[in-house]
Amino acid sequence: MGETNLQTKARIGVFICDCGGCISGALDTGALQKHIGQIDGVAYTCHEAYPCSKDGQGRMLKAVSEHSLDRILVAGCTPRLVERLFRTNVKTAGLDPDYLHMVDIREQVAYVHGDQTTAWKKAATLIEMGVARLSSTSKAPPQSSTVNKKALVIGGGLSSMTVALVLADQDIPVLFVEATGNVGGESHSLDDQTNQAIAQKSEMVLKHPQIDILFNARVTEVSGHPGEYRVQVLQGDQATLYAVGAIVINNGTQLKTPGSGRWYDRLRVKSQFEFEAELKQATDSGQKLALKDVVMIFCADEDQIEHCSRVCCNAGIRQAIRVKELNPEANVTILFREIYLGGIGEDYESELMRARRLGVTFFRYRRETPPAISECIELIDTLTGEPVRLAYDRVVLTMPMVPQDNAKTLSALLGLPLDEAGFLAEPRVRLKPGRYMQPGIYVLGSAQQPADSSEALFQAFLVAARVQRFLSQPGISIETPVAAIDPNLCTGCGNCPQVCPTSAIKLEKREGILSLSEVDALKCIGCGNCVVVCPVKAINLPGWDNVEIPAQISAALKPRQNGGVKVIALTCEWSAYGAADMAGARRLSYPSDVLIMRMNCSARFDPYHILWAFLNGADGVFLGACPVGECHYGIGNLYARERVSRLRTELKAHGIDPRRLRLEYLTVVDGKKFAEGVTDFVKELKTEIIKK
Amino acid sequence: MIHLTIDDRPIEVPEGRSLLEACRENGIAIPTLCYHPALEPYGACRLCVVELSQAGRKPRLVASCVYPCEEGAVVSTNSEMVQRSRRITAELILAGSYDTPEVLALGKELGVTEIRFKLPEENACVLCGLCVRTCSEIVGVSAISVIQRGISKKVSTPFQVKSSRCIGCGTCVLICPTGAFKFESVTGFQYVSPSQSSYRLGYYRLGGELDLHPTYEQDITALLANPKEGE
Q: Quick one: which of A107, A236, A417, A630 could link to A626 by a disulfide (CB 3.0–4.6 Å)?
């Protein structure tokens, strides 16, 4: 619940910015200061050239302590540029940043209204509205969550074992969920050094007292928020619930199976895996390899997948060497698109050179002209541009690594995006490597793209460090307003969980039959959709509540003798409010009758507030929302559209012209459209609707 | 407190102020293009140069937005040397932006009568870097940056592809002093994918990241496919 401050009267400080003449040139800020000073609740006023400068900020701090102010109103330029600055300063002053309100008298007044008196009047009204809102606003209580110092590692490859070991060595309990019956992942023809590392790590993981391994298990459900995840693990038929703080995913990759179009018969044409088994058999039996012409095709996928699988070139070259060792007379040819050599150690290039010294032939082909397999292999050599025909008695197809089958499930379970190839994508690999969508979820190893062992290890240490840092913090807290439900008022109707875009609201059974809604504060993004749909108004969203918004509307509609129409514009801060800023920045004039109110999302356009405006004498209400499909909170604008269309019917039934309510879709840079839209609206109101 | 003389006026300022801040605080106007009080000074446009005289040194030009106030400094904000420098700077800025009204007005104010050097292509962007700094310092996203060197220097997204980091707030367009910024060329903001958009929003609001529930995406995809006809 917001801490309403109705008993003690608010002491508001109003700081009017001259903006070095930009504002004071268009209206008399001195007179404005005097006028505002007379409003009830305003304890201090000033106007100065640059309140945003270091000295201005210092003076603000001084004024707060000298006049014991508890709320700050800054009337100046757009909050989008300086709100952050003032919020920091207000915090420095020891006040809650939620008690800062910004009124834009530059972009919305000084830049767009040429006439001094008009501009002055509008600025005064806007500041009065701001004061009304600020005096009735409530503070958002701090929301915080504890961090459960336990990590869940899904998948048992080299990198996940490394992460688990690093964490466990730091006394962080690790829950290790492995889909198969053993740790180590699949060794895709890996080299000895890597296999050795895997064996070593597996042994350590199995022995470690802090690592709890669940074999043949899979994660079926994840709920909660960063720091406090609840994970359901299914092991056999038994489902167990575990509480963890962070989740590390490495579900690995799998080899793609060659399609039938490539003469893949598993006898003459084999996959790299199958060929490895054949070589092993030959080695074990000690016989000479009875193969004369071996052709290896790298990147042999028919679809010519874009990504590099990292490990197959190494494996292929090693196999070529092996063939040459077993049968020096065999002709080994490698057809490649590009060669990538990497992994633990640095001797991969020397492996390639060794293969060449042993007489392995390399041909490069282009993606556009892949080698055709029939009774012989045909390709175009890129060095000569000539077609080459190769006879074969064994073709080895090196297939790319593709995502595991469960990547899609995990993506749905944890809300992670998939990239084009179907791997769990890391959106900011270059800018913030190692960090994932949610602070508590980390993806590593081949789960995000095929990785060779050195890359996987590097990533593992990086992720381990991040997980450690995340789990070591005492708690996570957020300052932005989130919805809170009053349990005394909630009737459990179930409206709010339906409209919540983040599923932050859950309906929970309590005390027998009665259900109550509960908000997960860390999931709430503060769109206010639930506040609108709550029939008993049990939900509060501090800052955008049912107290301050009507108060602001009432202040805007106070009787004045300016003769014009009264238009309230409720604007979403991500679209129409920005468009109004743009209109100001480009000096596009529009009628001064339009009083703009900043809302968080069009989902918060409450029909009750619109009705309140009409009942208090508004001539028109202009709503500005994001275009359909462009809402920053999901589909707030679609809700607004539906509510407006229903409200219009209601208005008509009660004798109010529905044209007095207009909804327009604007993007954040549509300054011109905004100016034209409101001008047209006011013109229509004046000429057609309000016939005076 | 530091004592210095600006335009023959004795001025006292707290330590750590730049010359520009001291001038503005005392009502002395200095033209700027790349300065914004909410952002760290950048010193890119060089229009704010002032003449600084210190004991034992020849008078020299310094960019007032990044130069700190020093004890005993004598500053002249409108001397012949300063005016000449600003005129040349403005003319050089105009060399690329000769059709941009905002820059033309600035040039006129600073006394540029003719533009002697004109680049073959007009470009309203004067590389003041306000958009880049806004994106990183105010919005906290860093979806854009200045790329390349010399005459090919420009503002762009990483790898010059539309940025998926952009949260579509439009602050860069708002702050651009010449209206050069093309929003469409930068934002790769995927409006239709609510899980991504709200994750960005979460990032912006929380300073961390939070994500939408995946089932919601299916709901909205269905809704967007069959939008209810409202009006």
A: A630
Interface contact A476, partner B, CB < 8 A: yes
Residues 6+ apart with CB under 8 A from A529: A499, A500, A501, A601, A603, A604, A633, A636, A639
Q: Chain B: nearest CA to A521, how far in angstroms?
A: 11
Q: Which residue of A has its CA nearest to B226?
A: A638
**Predicted confidence (pLDDT) per residue in A458-489, tens digit:** 889 988 998 998 899 888 776 667 888 988 88
Residue A332, domain CATH? 3.50.50.60
Task: Give counts: helices (H), strands (E), chain A.
Answer: 18, 32
Range of the domain at A506: 482-540
Instruction: Compute and round to an integer the Cα radius of gyration of chain B.
Output: 23
Q: Into how many domains does chain A fold?
A: 4
Q: Residues A487, A532: contact at Cβ < 8 Å?
A: no
Identity of the amino acid at A593: D
Residues of A in contact with B209 (CB under 8 A): 435, 437-439
- The residue among A480, A502, A557, A355 whose CA lies nearest residue A96 is A480
pLDDT over 90 at A126, yes or no: yes
Give yes or no for residue A427 having a pLDDT over 80. Answer: no
Q: How confident is the model at residue A276 (pLDDT cuts 50, 70, 90)?
A: confident
Q: Tell the CATH topology of B2-109.
A: Ubiquitin-like (UB roll) (3.10.20)
| Per-residue pLDDT band at B31 (split at 50, 70, 90) | very high
Which residue of A lies nearest to B188 if distances are taken between CA atoms?
A630
Interface of B with A in 118-137 (CB under 8 A): 134
User: Residue A116 sits in a domain of what CATH number?
Assistant: 3.40.50
What digits encode the pLDDT tens for the residues A316-357? Answer: 898 899 899 888 899 999 999 888 887 666 677 888 889 999
Task: Give A 495-524 residues with CB within 8 A of chain B.
Answer: 501-503, 522-523
CA A605/CA A643 separation, integer angstroms? 9
Question: Among A366, A399, A432, where does a domain finish?
Answer: A399
